[in-house]
Amino acid sequence: MKRKSYTDALTTLAKGTDAGLYRLIPERVEIVNSEEEVQEILAECRVIGKPLTFKAGGTSLSGQTITDSVLVEIGPDFGKIKISEDGRSATFPCGITGDHANRLLKRYGRKLGPSPASIKSARISGIVANNASGSSYGITYNSYHTVRSMRLILTDGTLLDTASAESRRYFVESHPEWVDGLLALRERVKQNPEMEARIRHKYELKNTCGYGVNSLVDYDDPVDILMHLMIGSEGTLGFISEVTFETVPDLKLKASALLYFPSIREACQSILPLRECSVSAAELMDRNALRAVENEPGMPETLRTLPDEAVALLIDTSANDKQTLQKQFAEIEEKLSSVHTLYPVSFTTDPELYATYWRVRSGLFTSAAAGRPRGTVSIIEDIAFRGDVLGDALTDVREVLARHHYPDAVMWGHLLDGNVHFTIFPDVNRSEGVEGYAAFMQELTDTVLRHDGSLKAEHGTGRNMAPFVRQEWGDDIYLLMKDIKKLLDPQNLLNPGVLINDDPQVFIKNLKRMPLANDLIDRCIECGFCEVQCPARNLTITPRQRIVIYRTLSAMAERGETDTPRYAGLKKAFQYKGNETCATDGLCGTACPVGINTGLLIKELRWKENGKAAERIASFIAKDMDSVTNALRPMLSFAHGVSKVIGYGTMEGITRGLFRISGHRFPLWTRYTPSGARKLDYTTETPLPGQPEMVYFPSCITRTMGPSADYDEKAGVTEKTISLLHKAGFAIRYPENIHRLCCGMAFSSKGFRRQAKEKEDELNEALLKISDNGALPILCDMSPCLLHMRETLDKRLHLYEPVEFIYDFMLDRLEFSPLPITVAVHSTCSTTKMGVTAKLQALAGMCAAKVVSPMEVTCCGWAGDRGFFYPELNASALRMLPTSLEDATEGYSNSRTCEIGLTMNSGISYKSIVYLVDKVTRKKEEL
Q1: Side-chain half-sphere of 63: how many Cα atoms within 13 Å?
Q2: What pLDDT score does 845 carry?
Q3: Between 176-190 and 475-488, two packed helices, what is the crossing angle to 10 degrees?
Q4: Out of 338-342, 527-531, 600-604, which region has the weakest mean confidence (pLDDT)?
Q5: 205 and 385 in contact (C-beta within 8 Å)?
Q6: So what's the pLDDT on residue 803?
Q7: For the chain, percent helix, then strand, then coil, each to nearest 5?
Q8: How far from 100 is each of 119, 363, 595, 635, CA to CA, in Å?
């Protein structure tokens, strides 16, 4: 993927958004995928004096990745990954997420040191440029202390690889003024013992306020000084294209405990004892924070009954063996014996509960923000204090919050570091709200500095804290920081106004408004956690960006601006970029800490747009499903019949031409499009004495679509499923009038609500009847259909998709003989949402010697029938699939339509998992 440039209204607005509290719309957006492209843009901007800002994941909170000039966004193809044999050293390109990096390191028992709550979405360059740390105790594992080398591009376009002796030597020789300037800055600090002591003292705490001037006291070599100045520089000194980390141990066994204290002072008394234990994190959550998450699945009932002043600590400890872990439990309990807790210390090692606790903790900011008063914004602050004053300091901060009318402020943080976050919800739509926020910030600054704290511990300075940097550091060190910027960016081209800014009001300028637009998305704070799950993220726009555009259109309509060219342009562009290329799969809701499913918004828009003619067609299909499927089967088979005569290549050329000429109205046919399925006689079977019964509902898709040209057998999914069920000894019941039945999902996804409800009700009645009101388990052979059934049908029905049914009901009725092959498995959106991915992988592992599950492939983007009309969505979603298959020769999933796109874009044939299970099993002798 090459550099792309955008100046249109929709793209600049959408991509100009980050997670912070400010809004600026870039003049131009550049998507870059190589160092050469960055150098090219830098050269262009130097010539015309145009400022530019770099953006990675857009999860920054302080306004450091927005601009009204040129925005340079890191594309998906930037750089390569290199990991040492033992995993202790790992080199990652700027564009991959911290979570991706950690999943690659997991096999080595290693992980990255920095662990921000946004790690699933935050990208490597952003993690380093903000000197992220996260919940891990201390500053030892932050970016500053774990980065070993980097490739960076300076303002004059010079590429410096700090791991290369030749590159370092060239830099020193070619940039004598920079080298001399860096050494002079270091000498300035060294010649001022008071300044040096001040710097060392300040960095005993987490601190990301201003430039990392500790590099001037920690390092002697000018290249090392420069590299460490880049850490935490927020894109104001250069571009970080690649980083090599010294990774840290990721111990196998993990445990956590929720400890409850009567007050925040009591919780602070646990700091010193916990620092003497093997504790990697102790996360503070005040009563307001606990209220924000107490109704989350998996949260203890205890949360709802805690006193108003109570707080909790989420403690994390880990080891490589159970004996060591038990010793650590005992040590922690002993050290805390003198601290007053509301309940005894109790650890959990249950992986699901452990994951739930940390998922909720990671999403605490967004969960709290989702509950804010309607129309207000969410602003997060990030401060740190020494342990000996923490209790007093936090009490004072609470009093400041109360004085400024923020009683609903939510407080949480990394207690071992004295690092506390809190969020407030001012109404910035009113001047009184802005003025109140400004007054609060000034008193907060005074309070933090009175206790010798850090104004920004780990979220970066940005625009939010830039006016207060001088107040924290004093005139001499602030001047030192300004001289760093002047030396390394003399034209002030890189992210001007961020980190260093003499405008005392910049922190209340360009505040982001959050207009009320739709109950489905009003809670969104634009954090961007959803984006990594979106299949359209590298094609058009993401869920966050859809919400931004929708809010803008709603606000413009509210102001009566629907007849303006800007409104018309945004709405027209949104039709394709926001609506037509949305898969509505709902995976964005699984990544969103408050479960916002942007697909529901798009379905609502489609419902509103459906005309009378479309409604009539949908009603005809719904009422006469049998005739429609009967007509489709021979049509599907006819295309394959013609292809066998004229050749598949010729046929695909013809159908591609029709697809283009029709403007995507004629579906794209390929050799991987299924032929028609055989119409079977679905007659309920009479069980033999003692024979188990079940209900099988073949979806309308599998009743219609059979094998495609890549299949090595002629049996369709329904035939193969019936064969496997008989092999396992089941007597099968089928619902009455099966050829008329449909789960309704196809209608729902296109916004045909009435027709969807009719099909849902019809299927519900039929399944209740045939299952004896839910007494028998029901299998549907399409995972997406099954999820829709679970969401819409009677809760008495016990509904299963293929993986679950095989795993839960057939394993003890079949004998497995695994094959010496490598297979790939794809977890569909519905499989992921239902939590069946682990069972899919385990089941495949019972059938094959090796199972590959590509980590960077989420939704395939086929989206029902959307892949026939928008194949670019499917291709973009699966762009990483071919290179992630390793040596797999076969692919398996549990959705016939998804398997079309997977086969088209992978180079191997994907089929239903029932084919693999049927191939490697035989009936157990004793049955």
Answers
A1: 30
A2: 97
A3: 170
A4: 338-342
A5: yes
A6: 97
A7: 45, 15, 40
A8: 9, 18, 22, 44
